[in-house]
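Subject: two folds for Thursday's group meeting

Dear M.,

Sorry for the delay on this. The cluster queue was jammed most of the week, so I only got both jobs back this morning. I'm pasting them in the order they finished. Each block is the input sequence followed by the predicted structure tokens. Could you check whether the formatting survives your parser before we put anything on slides? The first protein is the one we discussed after the seminar.
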Amino acid sequence: MGLLSRFQSAKDTGAILKDLAAGTIDIVIGTHRLLQEDVVFRNLGLVIIDEEQWFGVKHKERLKQLRTQVDVLTLTATPIPRTLQMAMSSVRDLSIMDTPPAGRLAIRTQVVRSNHNLIREAILRELGRGGQVYFVHNRVETMERTGAWLRDLVPEARVVMAHGQMRAKPLEAVMLKFFHGEADVLIASAIIQSGLDVPNANTIIVNRADTFGLAQLYQLRGRVGRSGTQAYAYFLTPDEGSLTGDAQKRLTAIQQFTELGSGFRIAAADLEIRGAGNLLGKQQSGHIAAIGLDLYMQMVEQAVHRLKGQVVEEELDPVLRLNVSAYLPEEYVADPHHRLSFYKRLSSCTQIGDLALLHAELQDRYGLPPEPVERLFEVMQIRLQAKMLRLVSVELKTQSVVITLDAKNPVQSSGIQHLMDRHRTRLRFLSPLSFELQLPHQDWPSIFRELTATLQSLNVCDTKTSESA
């Protein structure tokens, strides 16, 4: 086994490169140093990329070019949007490990405006229980000034600094000093976001958190809480008015997903915010806003199935014209991001049971739903029933409802016959693919009951016919 990084001497590096080329080393662990042209493998068979978010497309392609046939396993808590999208579209295989180590506690996370008193109290509270603190300041040119300010703010603390522009030996010395408990506060750049494990450090303060990516914020938060001690993460921001829309979304996500093993959901939120990137190009995010995430994912998934020779059924989304006021009022769900999230989850429901669970969650969080919300769930139930029957449209007229069937996926004739027997005087065919049902009552509750009963009758008959066949 060999090790390649900038911390090795030139003599040791030369020896490892020679053994790699000769094949006398079976496993080599290294940083980006492994990607340089002087690294030659005799018979490379497996590439394991840990912390994949640190590698660009060129880096990963360079690893694969080292040998024509090579297996690649990538590991990360926060997949790059393009990688996650490829996995979700079946272009790449995906395995999820979401069980945390025994004894770990969820990190208590706060997104707050920068406040001197809060910073001092957070540091003193950690020192008071014998712990250590990370203070992340990602501007190397102002780090010395920040360090002097922090020493004045908390003179009780022993403060050290580390960043990526330091020489290898001094950087290693600072890290070891902090690891061995000889310093209380480590002021650092984003260099600490991966590979650092200090169980006694259980408070992290991130200055100007709005300037970090969502995956970076998640990785930084993961530096604390690595033991059984309750950990705290403070993400400091300027005034809300100065934050961009994407920055607000990132900070909302990092505060929302605090439970252990939430990296996959963080990555999914990052995918939605930044976009999925370019499957065949270098971009690992972006290029999705024009059509939206859901449609883009659906298109890619269908393309993958076609390339595999699988039959892809076109999903039919029925047109509903029901003339009913159905929505989430602002006075019921005030936050626009939460409203959009619920709308998206509603449209993603595939079974009526999913609607019931979402309705219960909404009521638990916001109280008894007003009438427009109840109507919204009823409309979504009709939509689900219509999708199951693959109907083209359901249109409410003045005193009737018109249902249009799909020529490619007709409803079983037994279902139509059942409706004719049940509503002989109220049912009228407008064409071979559409019929009109007269409605005896004009209030929405009665219309909803009539509609759902009609669609359920068609579906039940369809099911029975399929089973008997």
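Second protein, same layout:
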Amino acid sequence: MSNSNCRNTAADALVIFGVTGDLAHKMIFPALYTMAKRGELKVPVIGVASSKLSLAQLRKRAKDSIKQAGKIDDRAALENLLSLLQYVNGNYNNAATFIALRQALGNACRPAHYLAIPPALFATVIKGLAATGLAAQARVIVEKPFGRDLASAKELNQIALSVFEEDSIFRIDHYLGKEAIMNILYFRFANSFLEPIWNRNNVASVQITLSEDFGVKGRGAFYESAGCLRDVIQNHLFQIVALLAMEPPAFQGYAAVHNEKAKVFQAMRPLQPEDMVFGQYTGYRKEPGVAKNSNVETFCALKLHIDSWRWQGVPWYLRSGKCMALSAAEVLVELKPPPQKLFDDSAPSNGHANYLRFRLSPDTAVALAARVKTAGKEFVGEQHELYLLEEHLGNESPYARLLADAMSGNGALFTREDAIEAAWAVVDPVLDITRPIYPYKPGSWGPKQADTLIAPDGHWHNPILKKD
């Protein structure tokens, strides 16, 4: 690869390892189509896999993927994307594969290598890139899970950092590319009225729910190796916690945001067995690929402590699960009641006190709950939500945003080495312990033991979908 045109920081080629896999079919090709429609994709896209496909077959697979994701409404963009596709067939353990890739890259000197492959192959590919000079001035995009515990995360970081600089490693958590997640960061720091109340003096508790109304969808073998704690809590929900709990960044720029998020993970108290409730939906053990006596959790609820000046003593309750009542993601920041009970009906005994609610999916909302007096002589009232934002977002995948950012070198929506390891350190003490798994009925809100977990601080706020 020539270095004559390497002054531009944008990637001049995209290499997709695992281009024939499910992730590429479900997420990456539709994202590339979106980028093509926006005029953001103008570089070669080189797929690498062991499947013996022709280029024509790969292009057909890409077209079928885009059709399944939605209608094709821009033929010119589709044809442009298909014309950019190339294919290298080979085994990742064979140096000849990387030599063929080098030839396919031609004059490209700053490629972005997307590892859309099982984590067990990350090290093999990274070492293969290094051995053939394909890592110089390049970037690597790594799909989650980034490790399965603290030790494996550290090992993977060491391998990646032995070849790439930290600012050339883009660890994808697709949840960070969602518009509603980005809005949490904006809402917190674009408004001044939150800062005086956003602390232990005024916040009673925080709870985050990410529920899904479906099961493992044929991915039983994967779930047997992961479970809810690893698959959802340690990454998606911890990232939401970090955005809610972080201190204001010291300067404008993604490095400052990463600094503050890492501090939140470092301040999290390591989990203990009494902080957690695990559940498994009835029927999970009959799923393909699942052991008949499986002890893997499909539901997890936990109580989290952040030992920082701002949040000391404020409980954070997180829960996620499959086969629950509905699919939704929501944050509820409950405020402490007024210091003096001037009105008989204002005590939060029959519900929540004032709160701020972030609905993240399926629609988005930012709402503030406040009590207002009802008409009449009596000083009685009702609590109503004041909507600060309410909108229905489209089904656009966050992958288009994340891919475009990685190729341009913008690391704002990606996770950093120290944050990854600090987050794993929080859950590491409970990953491999023997723990009771409570059954729960599909269509419910999980096992009743989760209600007992949160009881000292109230009850769960179950999301309710609005009817049009």
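Two things I noticed about the second structure. The mean pLDDT is 91. The first strand starts at residue 13 and ends at 17.

Cheers,
T.
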